[in-house]
Amino acid sequence: MKKKFQWDITYLQWGITALGVITCAVVVYFVFDRWSSTAQTFYKIADAFSPVIYGLLFAYLLGKIKVFLEVKFVYPMVNRIFKKAQIMRKRHIARYISIIITITLTFFCVIGGILLVLPQLVNSLQLLVDSMPEYSKMIADWISSMFTDNVVMHDTMVIIADNIIGRFTNWIEVSLLSPAESIAANIIDGAVALMRLATNIAVGFVISLYTMYNNERFTAQVKKTIYGLFDTDPANRIIRNITRLDEKFGSFITARLIDAVVIGVLAYIFNIVAGMPYPLLIAVIIGITNIIPFFGPFIGGVPSAALILLIDPVKAIIFGLFIVILQMLDGNVIYPKIQGSSFGLSGFWIVSALMVGGGLFGFPGILLSVPVVAFVYTVFKEMVQNRLRDRSLPTETEDYMIYRTTESTINNSHLY
User: What DSSP assignment string belongs to 366-394?
Assistant: First the structure.
């Protein structure tokens, strides 16, 4: 006689779990199989939420400055002036003043930087474009002197050099010096795009003000939601990881921006003292590309040295030596002082993060991939170490570098 089937809620749980796993696998397959269309969908969603994204980004970056001013300067001053006022009232006053000071400083820094740097940068680019025919003739003369006995090689090298210089000149004229002409040629599309960008930035700016003023309340609401959805221990772990992610992102972005400004200023001072051509243009290139970890110095240093090489080969060698010394100083002294602590990632993980992040998301992926990988690496490392401690196994990697171990070798554990 066959045993009668008895229903158990466990079967439903297994079925839901299996269905969820299959659904996730299918979704992941279609996402990567149709990555181009998926990326376009993500970009459209991001464009629709761009005011909110701008607002959160402004609030996150400016919030660091606001908190520093409020804690270190503004609140102590308000506390001395309004001694008899309630604590909450003093905090509100300090918050308003800190936000006003932060916005004012940011506005003057941005506008001042644009007014001081942009005209000189445009003049340098225009001078570079005007000098390209002379540089082209110099290269042609050098090629002629190098390949006087080989006519075919001479003609080939001249064609390649003219093609490279022509493409470079066209890129500067079209991409950097003529955005106004492009907008004038498509006045309606340009005006609509400009107005939309200005509106998104303005709305994002308002959102950032509201977010900076109510950051404690928003943080409390997030914590409340997490503790409401999860048990205490998982909720504590989630909040701890969110805090760690905030520390990784905040310290990384702040350190990279400050480091880029310092390196750019040092490069500009050296260019002025050493009499390098296009001092501001080269300093801006060095500073901006220095934001990119690992590859940034090479991306900025090589074209800058090549640009100087066209004018003065000796100065190009001096500039190359300066860049090597500057990057050694930056990597061992300047950036560690700014960052405070390293991410604990080896060169392999940094290069892998930059390649994957840049390939998938472009420049934002290059900029943010390192802190993301550092966060994931830290969380995974902590999880593995906790599991090892629970099983009374060693947590140091060096203990596992022995080819074969016995029970008496490592914590009385039988490892092979």
Answer: HHHHHHHHHHHHHHHHHHHHHHHHHTT--
**Alpha helix (H) ranges present in 275-394?**
279-289, 296-309, 313-329, 335-339, 347-390
Geometric angle at alpha carbon 145, from 144 and 147, rounded to 5°: 65
Let me know: does 415 contact 393? Beta carbons within 8 Å.
Answer: yes
Cα 210 to Cα 218: distance, rounded to the nearest angstrom = 10
pTM over 0.90: no
What does the alpha-carbon distance between residue 416 and residue 413 come to, in Å, rounded to a whole number? 10
Gap between the Cα atoms of 188 and 251, Å rounded: 42
- Collapsing DSSP to helix, strand or coil, 345 comes out as coil
Q: Give the pair of three-digit tokens for residue 121.
A: 């940068």
Beta-carbon-side half-sphere exposure of residue 183 (alpha carbons within 13 Å): 11
DSSP state of 7: -
Greatest distance between any 2 Cα atoms in the chain: 101
Q: Provide DSSP, 143-196.
A: HHHHSTT-HHHHHHHHHHHHHHHHHHHHHIIIIIS-HHHHHHHTHHHHHHHHHH
Length of the chain: 416
Q: Give residues with Cβ within 8 angstroms of 265, minimum separation 6.
A: 283, 287
pLDDT digits (tens, 9 = 90+) for 135-193: 666 766 676 666 666 666 666 766 776 676 666 666 655 555 555 444 444 445 555 66
Model pLDDT for residues 34-72, shown as the tens digit of each residue: 777 777 887 788 777 888 888 888 888 888 888 888 888
